[in-house]
């Protein structure tokens, strides 16, 4: 079984931008989302993936991801995927032997930028760059599945 240990953070400033080594345009559409799980299709530049993920609260989840033909993914978006879609730009930043994925959202989630880091184990510690802000790993509002149902631009904070 595949596991993902991921922590999610807000950002203090834009200083992370100077450390970006790669940027990927992404679009995600959910086939199913609900309590305890999600199934989504994702386009990343010229690749496509289907992803099955438990939506457990916290940093430890089950995750399975498989590459699929791009044309199949396009058809899934057109015919099957639930709306609205998540559109974002993912910026990759190397950080020692790990890397951050900084997601910059668009559409109804414009203005939201979060950083994620995937860790090898739940106890793994890492140096926090100065641009890393408050941890929101357990705040379900920041889950992509939640952003579909309750977009960032509708939050009252």
Automatic annotation (TrEMBL):
GO molecular function (one): adenylate cyclase activity
SMART domains reported in the protein's UniProt record: CYTH
Entry EC number(s): 4.6.1.1
Sorted UniProt keywords: Lyase
Ranges of residues in domain CYTH: 2-149
Top-rank taxon, per record: Bacteria
SUPFAM superfamilies associated with the record: CYTH-like phosphatases (SSF55154)
Enzyme class: lyase
InterPro entries the UniProt entry points to: CYTH-like_dom_sf, CYTH_domain, NeuTTM/CthTTM-like
Active site feature: 30 (proton acceptor)
Record Gene3D superfamilies: Hypothetical Protein Pfu-838710-001
Name the record gives this protein: Adenylate cyclase
Organism encoding this protein: Solemya velum gill symbiont
């Amino acid at each position: 079984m595949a596991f993902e240990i991921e922590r999610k953070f807000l950002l203090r400033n834009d200083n992370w931008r100077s450390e970006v080594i790669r940027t990927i345009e992404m679009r995600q559409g959910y086939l199913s989302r609900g309590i305890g799980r999600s199934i989504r299709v994702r386009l990343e530049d010229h690749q496509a993936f289907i992803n099955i993920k438990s939506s457990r609260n916290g940093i430890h989840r089950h995750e399975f991801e498989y590459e699929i033909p791009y044309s199949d993914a396009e058809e899934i978006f057109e015919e099957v995927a639930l709306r609205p879609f998540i559109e974002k730009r993912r910026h990759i930043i190397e950080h020692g032997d790990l890397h951050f994925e900084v997601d910059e959202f668009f559409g109804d989630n414009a203005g939201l930028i979060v950083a994620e880091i995937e860790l090898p184990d739940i106890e793994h510690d890492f140096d926090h760059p100065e641009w890393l802000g408050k941890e929101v790993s357990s705040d379900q509002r920041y889950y992509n599945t939640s952003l579909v149902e309750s977009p960032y631009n509708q939050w009252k904070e």
